[in-house]
């Protein structure tokens, strides 16, 4: 694999890395594979490291975040590492009162529901995420030829936690605010787009090779709602990264009906969850991406990994076959690795995908 450094910035260049080749819409030497939440609770070595470490503290400890990020690369030989972090980290670093409660998820001290609440949200300064940038620099030195993906939560998903005060099944307060106080809503998402962009640009400056924007809860919206209330802010984040030259991946859960709109937001790679076949997703994306490469990421159902190897092998082969409808395909799950997954199953999936 060719490995060079960009003279102007000192950024490493990995022109032959399968993930980065696929992100350009080309066919790499092998099908690239990585897994969302690959550095997580399915790995015993991860659980050992995290035994006495709260989530946010672990994310803001560079040496620990580096080691956790490297664990699945060593174990599974995946084609990319993804920075160990959390979508709430930039809010936490900015000074928003919140915690990630085991068994519950993010809980916000003071929900944001009024203009005054929005105006008092702190601004994220780049220096506040220096621990994350330091972890990226450590990883770039360790990863060699393996690309590193940075990531952040999209403005809508962050807003849903801030408005609801924590996880929500129906996002009722969020939707009520969107429709009843659109000015407050857009002011909030504007602030969050700026925060997200600051966080991602800090990762880019530190040396990540690609970016993924997670809109975990966008699937709760209709396409009309998405285009009116979410699209402008996600598009702003993605456009704000264009000058980095980094591939941009955009992913949401339950977003099969939103794929056209999410594609138009400006990502280079469109992530697809398990609810829609990749060949159908390719048709929807191609309808709005006529003159650019069509690159999809996904989309094995994470629950299938608990079904035993014969079922997993069958489903992996199906996903790979459907992925050929795109110009390029990055094999992944349709969401994150479940905690009860046997790590050996992930290793076998990588080996099978690489053999195709």
Classify the secondary structure makeup into a structural class.
alpha/beta
What is the name of the CATH topology? TIM Barrel
The CATH architecture = Alpha-Beta Barrel
Radius of gyration: 19 Å
Mean pLDDT, to the nearest integer, reads: 95
Q: Which percent range describes the beta-strand content?
A: 5-15%
Q: Which sequence of SSEs, written as H and E, runs from N to C? A: EEHHHHEHEEHHEHHHEHEHEHEHEH
Strand order of the largest sheet: 3-6-7-8-9-10-11
What general outline do the C-alpha atoms trace? Answer: globular
Helix content: 40-55%
Provide structural commentary:
With 356 residues, this protein is α/β, with parallel strands linked by helices. The protein has a single domain (4-355), classed as TIM Barrel (Alpha-Beta Barrel), CATH 3.20.20.210. It has 15 helices and eleven strands. The strands form three sheets. Strands 3-6-7-8-9-10-11 form a seven-stranded parallel beta sheet. Strands 1-2 form a two-stranded antiparallel sheet. It has a two-stranded antiparallel ribbon with strand order 4-5. Helix 8 crosses helix 9 and helix 9 crosses helix 10 (182-206). The protein starts with a strand and ends with a helix.
């Amino acid at each position: 694999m060719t490995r060079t450094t960009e003279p102007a910035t000192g950024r490493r260049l990995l022109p032959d890395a399968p993930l980065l080749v696929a992100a350009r819409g080309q066919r790499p030497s092998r099908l690239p594979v990585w897994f969302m939440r690959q550095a997580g609770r399915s790995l015993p070595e991860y659980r050992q490291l995290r035994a006495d470490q709260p989530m946010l503290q672990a994310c803001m400890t560079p040496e620990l975040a580096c080691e956790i990020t490297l664990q699945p690369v060593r174990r599974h030989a995946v084609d990319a590492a993804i920075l160990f972090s959390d979508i709430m980290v930039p809010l936490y670093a900015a000074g928003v009162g919140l915690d990630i409660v085991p068994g519950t998820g993010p809980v916000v001290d003071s929900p944001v529901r009024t203009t005054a609440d929005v105006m008092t949200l702190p601004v994220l300064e780049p220096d506040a995420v220096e621990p994350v940038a330091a972890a990226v620099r450590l990883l770039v030195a360790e990863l060699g030829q393996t690309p590193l993906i940075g990531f952040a939560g999209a403005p809508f998903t962050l807003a849903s936690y801030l408005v609801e005060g924590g996880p929500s099944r129906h996002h009722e307060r969020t939707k009520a605010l969107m429709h009843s106080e659109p000015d407050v809503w857009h002011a909030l998402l504007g602030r969050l787009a700026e925060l997200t962009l600051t966080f991602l640009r800090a990762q880019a400056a530190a040396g990540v090779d690609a970016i993924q924007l997670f809109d975990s809860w966008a699937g709760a919206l209709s396409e009309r709602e998405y285009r009116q209330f979410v699209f402008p802010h996600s598009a702003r984040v993605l456009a704000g990264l264009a000058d980095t030259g980094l591939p941009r991946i955009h992913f949401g859960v339950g977003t099969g009906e939103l794929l056209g709109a999410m594609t138009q937001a400006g990502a280079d790679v469109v992530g697809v969850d398990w609810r829609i076949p990749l060949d159908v997703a390719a048709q929807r994306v191609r309808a709005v991406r006529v003159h650019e490469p069509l690159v999809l990421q996904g989309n094995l159902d994470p629950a299938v990994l608990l079904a035993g190897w014969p079922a997993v092998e069958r489903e992996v082969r199906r996903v790979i076959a459907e992925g050929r409808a795109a110009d390029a395909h990055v094999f992944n799950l349709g969401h994150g690795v479940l905690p009860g997954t046997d790590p050996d199953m992930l290793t076998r999936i990588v080996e099978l995908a690489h053999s195709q």
